[in-house]
Specification:
This protein is mostly helical and 117 residues long. It has one domain: Up-down Bundle (AhpD-like). The protein has 5 helices and no strands. The model has no long low-confidence stretch (mean pLDDT 95).
């Protein structure tokens, strides 16, 4: 096992709280943007989280993978749906996306193990 994605999410949550204190107006605006973009609309929240996972893979963002895999799981995403999302990210992002895609499935398995016991 490589990275521990539940720990990455936990550690970043503390760092983000510190950032929220440092730049509250910016972070409030970011939170509003995230809420509006993630809201149930033409695309449901699970689909939006799967899209976010694909983008996180292609931009190679460990924290983004952690947060969006956790959110996708909360919205009912299955491992097969995450795997298919990884496939699209690999197709669009090549070899580096394949590496981060493998790590994304690892993140999914870690969150399932941690939260579904």
């Amino acid at each position: 096992m490589g990275k521990n994605y539940p720990d990455i999410a936990k550690d970043l949550t503390g760092a983000i709280k510190t950032l929220r204190t440092a730049i509250p107006d910016t972070m409030n605006a970011f939170t509003q943007l995230a809420e509006k973009a993630s809201a149930d609309s033409v695309l449901d929240p699970k689909t939006k989280e799967l899209l976010a996972i694909a983008i996180a893979i292609t931009t190679r963002c460990d924290g983004c993978i952690a947060f969006h895999v956790k959110a996708a799981l909360r919205h009912g995403a299955t491992r097969d749906e995450v795997a298919e999302t990884v496939g699209m990210a690999v197709y669009m992002g090549g070899g580096p996306s394949m590496i981060y895609g493998a790590q994304t499935l690892e993140a999914y398995d870690q969150f399932v193990e941690k939260y579904q016991k």
